[in-house]
Amino acid sequence: MPVVMEGALADLGAWKTDHCSLVKALEVVGTRSALLILREACYGTTRFSGFADRIGITDRAAAQQLRRLTEAGLLAKRPYREDGGRTRDEYVLTDMGRELFPVIVALMQWGDRHLQGGTAPLHYVDHETGVPVHVELRTETGDTLELEQVGIRRNPAWRAPKRAPQPETTP
């Protein structure tokens, strides 16, 4: 059973998914290389060559994704210089990028459960206690929810962005 669509959203044929936040998010992180770069940044990779080598992508693809993720605000450039070398940039997660970590862990947990035969190659744990970490859907009061317990309703405070005026064309 799906989530409960509430109010005007209950009739799926009566509204469109324009301005969907998932679409906007996928425009930024919806490629394999973008997600893998973010995974590597969470693991502590900061140098250009480290991203390209660990992910197994070309330098050109790494440069393109690092530029896109930096322009989107998920990564920030930070200058560094090794002894005798020129100043270069390394890439570090911004707060916006760090907030994607639960998404990455959730995808990995799903892959562990359904694509790895239930045996995870890695365990995410609390560093100090060793207690396993997992991602789940919870209310603000801490209750765990299943898909069928979630309701979706319009946010009355949200307003669609105004469209920019289109230039007039002359025949």
UniProtKB/TrEMBL annotation:
PROSITE patterns: HTH_HXLR
InterPro entries given in the database record: HTH_HxlR, WH-like_DNA-bd_sf, WH_DNA-bd_sf
GO MF annotations in UniProt: DNA binding
Keywords carried by this UniProt record: DNA-binding, Transcription, Transcription regulation
Domain of life: Bacteria
Entry annotated with the keyword DNA-binding: yes
Gene3D superfamilies linked: Winged helix-like DNA-binding domain superfamily/Winged helix DNA-binding domain
Domain HTH hxlR-type residues, every copy: 20-119
SUPFAM superfamilies per record: Winged helix' DNA-binding domain (SSF46785)
Protein's UniProt name: Transcriptional regulator
Organism listed in the record: Embleya scabrispora
